[in-house]
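Async update (no meeting this week)

Hi team, since we skipped the sync, here's where things stand on the single-chain job. The sequence we agreed to prioritize is pasted below, unchanged from the tracker. I ran it this morning and attached the output directly underneath so nobody has to dig for it. Comments welcome in thread, and please keep replies under the output.
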Amino acid sequence: MHDLVIVGAGPGGIALAAEAAACHLGSPQTIVFEKGNAHNWAIRQFYPDKKLTTANYKGFQARCEGLLCIDDMTKAETLEYFDRVIRDYKIDVQYNTEVYAAYRDLTESEERFQIETSKGRYKSKVLAIAVGILGRPNKPAEYPLPPSLKARLLFDITSNRIENENVLVVGGGDTAAEYVENLFRQNNTVTLSYRKAEFARLNERNGSLLQGMEQRKEVRILRSSNIGKIEDNAGRPRVYFNEDHFPTETFDRVIYALGGTTPSNFLRTLGIAFNEIGPMFDSHGETNVPGLFILGDLVVGPKGGSIITAFNSAVHAMQRICEVYLKCGPCGPEGDRV
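Output:
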């Protein structure tokens, strides 16, 4: 029996476990389940090695509200930071543990969550879901992806080392721009396909980056371009565009940077109510199911948030958890940050 079970060992889940430990709810009262074999799977999978995790996210000034805080860091520095947090706060993370289902059991004298995992059944007073949206990347809905090209149609640039190839990147956000930059550095010929005429979602740094790369002819940008279909051309993707002025072309690889989607089906099975925007929650991240919280990207919206917004969502959740559900000890001072 646990006081707090957290699903997901990303920034939000680790921050909530750290906040709980600072309120004398550490191990064994609190446990984190992570389906991967390491924390922060999305950062490991989707962030290029030289990508900065920026505190000043998308132009908004970052302000840390709780124990954890970061400055601009490289990917390696960010992962090392979380290693230190897990060690310093003695956070119990159970890796390779997938949560299949959870429900609120009203049959016992006290309401508990029954949590079904790949390593057995657990009980908890409070349940927090801190899974990210990048774990389920968006795929194009307008055309099928040929199964024979699975190794050539990718959703990140870290799973395979890509060098000296002709690569098409699809997307118009910051991730797409950073993919273009890193692919060029690895001696690839890079083309970027974006469905709109102008880039509206780029931060200042990436907007200037793409403009400069285009002027230096380091990237070819196909604005207002839409892929109609992809076929297998002798093991390479042959791309057909809907627009006649973009000729059909065969690439070595196509990299999609289309963002991610909320794991809606899993959240619905937990009994969480949805509106037209997404899962419903209050200012503390508590859903319509008492004692069931969501945090991190799940409370920011489809565009996702920063690591610091995930940290702050954990602070808000912990305030409600201590006020209503658990007997917390004196929590650590706000200024005592890691």
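Quick observations from my side:
The helical segments are 11-22, 41-46, 75-88, 174-185, 204-215, 264-269, 307-325.
The chain has two domains: 2-135+260-325, 147-256.
Reply here if anything looks off.
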